[in-house]
Backbone:
């Protein structure tokens, strides 16, 4: 894990050190440390309840850390939460858009909250409408927008004051794959202009868009690296097994020596094992048990595989 310097560094937008949040006796975020260089996209991944939102709320100056520290754009979140809130953009999981306002009215409303000067307000709203592709929908009531358009409007509202740092909490939850890709194109464009982005997601394909990924599990950061290195770091061989009874095959393979983990992806099983010589063993074991195997093939692990493996290693005390 990165050792952070004591003084804030100008080229780092985010510096998090041993950040911890307890609710009573429950620890939601446990000694999390990472940093994000300016202009990078950082993805915080992990299952529900891992502690992603709690981490983000502390970084946004909304929730006071129990211990540890974090600075955003050089400002300490514990001592200067109000300054942090003014300088960042935050699209929360339940970002409040006003349904009875139109697209431009929502943008103007957020512009006034963030004290965008009146003289530039119209230009700002116009350019955000263009950026988010909402032209032609300016006068549409927000209630009548589809999920994907609402996300785009929420993003535009969150950046109405042109923040240098943007926090997105599951920004594309429930949005179709094509709209998700388009949304990420917007994020990319912003990062290209020097905006630093921290996004949480549980869509593993989205994690591929990030420069760095932090994987959270049970309140802790269990991995921190770029997507390719994360995928390469998992040891062993991944075999994809297709058969006519994946549920029973999973059970049988789980108890077989030499196999570290078995996960079902729809009708396909992902089997981690010591080496590719296990191919024949798997085939014959399933044959003997009367399971029809149509394919056993070595494949390159995806981020999802990397994540599942790391969680597995964590939970068995690896
Ligand atoms: N205000 C709170 N009081 C008590 N527990 C909380 C509070 N906020 C979050 N938690 C708990 O902390 C854990 C992490 O939650 P959260 O950060 O929302 O996870 P994630 O965003 O990764 O799904 C969960 O078990 C959640 O129930
Ligand atoms: Mg969350």
Residues:
């Amino acid at each position: 894990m990165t050792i952070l310097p004591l003084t804030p560094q100008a080229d780092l937008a985010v510096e998090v050190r041993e950040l911890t949040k307890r609710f009573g006796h429950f620890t939601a975020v446990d000694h999390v440390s990472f940093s994000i260089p300016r202009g990078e996209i950082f993805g915080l991944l992990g299952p529900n309840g891992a502690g992603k939102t709690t981490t983000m709320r502390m970084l946004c100056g909304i929730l006071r850390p129990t211990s540890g520290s974090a600075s955003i754009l050089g400002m300490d979140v514990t001592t200067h939460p109000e300054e942090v809130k003014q300088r960042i953009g935050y699209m929360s999981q339940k970002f409040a858009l006003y349904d009875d306002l139109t697209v431009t009215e929502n943008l103007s409303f957020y512009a006034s909250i963030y004290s965008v000067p009146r003289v530039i307000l119209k230009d700002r709203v116009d350019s955000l409408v263009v950026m988010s592709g909402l032209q032609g929908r300016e006068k549409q009531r927000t209630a009548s927008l589809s999920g994907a358009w609402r996300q785009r409007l929420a993003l535009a509202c969150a950046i109405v004051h042109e923040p240098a740092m943007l926090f997105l909490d599951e920004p594309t939850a429930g949005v179709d794959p094509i709209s998700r890709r388009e949304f990420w194109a917007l994020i990319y464009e912003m990062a290209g202009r020097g905006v630093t982005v921290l996004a949480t997601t549980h869509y593993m394909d989205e994690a591929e868009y990030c420069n760095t990924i932090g994987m959270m599990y049970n309140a802790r950061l269990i991995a921190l690296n770029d997507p390719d290195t994360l995928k390469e770091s998992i040891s062993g061989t991944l075999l994809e097994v297709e058969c006519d009874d994946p549920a029973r095959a999973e059970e049988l393979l789980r108890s077989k020596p030499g196999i570290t983990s078995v996960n079902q992806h729809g009708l396909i099983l992902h089997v981690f094992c010591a080496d590719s010589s296990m191919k024949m063993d798997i085939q014959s074991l399933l044959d003997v048990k009367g399971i029809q195997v149509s394919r056993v093939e070595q494949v390159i692990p995806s981020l999802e595989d990397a994540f599942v493996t790391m969680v597995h290693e964590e939970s068995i005390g690896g």
User: Anything to note?
Assistant: The pocket of magnesium ion (ligand 2) is lined by residues 52-53, 93, 169 (CB under 6 Å). Confidence is low (pLDDT under 50) at residues 2-6.
